[in-house]
Specification:
The chain is an alpha+beta fold and about 170 residues long. Helix content is about 25%, strand content about 40%.
């Protein structure tokens, strides 16, 4: 698939495994952070454990930035708590999840939830990634004025006739 992205940011994803307090699951998984760059560690490297919580480096992803989505990126940045959305798909073996994507676009993050079985989580956007996204928005954003659609004038006489017939 050919990408139209004008910029790409390599990131690493950290996930947490936590003992569940549920009769239906033994453990819960969730992405907890994203960092810029790619470490030398292999995916699913154990990072540390404390009590019933264990952290893993889940792997590398690439955030793609597109000029047509700059409004979404800008709105994310000015929200007060900019986020990245991590999308992971369950596997039938170990490791339990496959890292699919990370995005800075809130609309794309919401669209990730359409695949009901995927694990999608918003995590805080690190300042160094926010700086890259901000520079991208500053360089590529074009303000598009809102244009209210006009009604189709040819359909108006038919609509008016139909409304008169209802009275």
């Amino acid at each position: 698939m050919i990408s139209t992205a004008l910029a790409r940011i390599s990131v690493g994803v950290v996930v947490e495994r936590r003992k569940a307090k549920s009769a239906w699951a033994d453990v819960l998984w969730r992405p907890v952070s994203v960092f810029a760059g790619t470490p030398a560690a292999t995916p699913w490297t154990l990072l540390g454990a404390e009590g019933e919580v264990t952290l893993f480096y889940a792997g590398e992803a690439v955030i793609e930035l597109h000029r047509t989505e700059t409004t979404n990126y800008r709105n994310n940045l000015v929200s007060g708590t900019p986020c990245l959305w991590v999308n992971m798909r369950p596997t039938t073996s170990e490791p339990p999840y496959e890292l699919l994507a990370v995005t800075a676009d809130p609309a794309e993050g919401e669209a990730f939830t359409d695949a009901g079985s995927n694990l999608v989580e918003a995590v805080p956007m690190p300042p160094e990634i926010a700086d890259i996204v901000q520079r991208f928005v500053a360089a590529h954003h074009v303000e598009r004025p809102f244009v209210k659609r006009q009604r189709d004038q040819q359909a108006a006489p038919l609509r008016d006739a139909a409304e008169k017939g209802k009275r």
